[in-house]
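Project standup — Tuesday

K.O.: blocked on the structure for the chain from last sprint. Re-posting the sequence here as requested.
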Amino acid sequence: MDYVNAFWVGGLICALVQILMEKTKMLPGRIMVLLVCGGAVLGALQIYGPLKDFAGAGASVPLLGFGDTLWEGVKEAVDTDGFIGIFKGGFTASAAGISAALVFGYLASLIFQPKMKNQV
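H.V.: unblocked you, prediction finished:
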């Protein structure tokens, strides 16, 4: 049942984002920023934690989950380090995920030889 919950929650998040992309003229970068900030706000309001507990990877993998991870890191760092935790908490919490994305992206570029798209 965990897989089913992850599938439908993650699919619902992705479907809502796809509708946002299709029905508005927002650029993808702005939508990504909106999702990360939205995840941080939902984490601060203690709404996203129960959703992650329910849906697992279906809620933690999308960009909303990244925003929640940043929020959790900042909250924990502020509790332990005070004011300076505002600046270092997000980096500490997300360092492993960002590092993995960079390493695997680099390895993929070595294997698949990426090409630049022609700008129109």
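K.O.: great, moving the ticket to review. The chain has a mean pLDDT of 90. Residues 2-112 form one domain.
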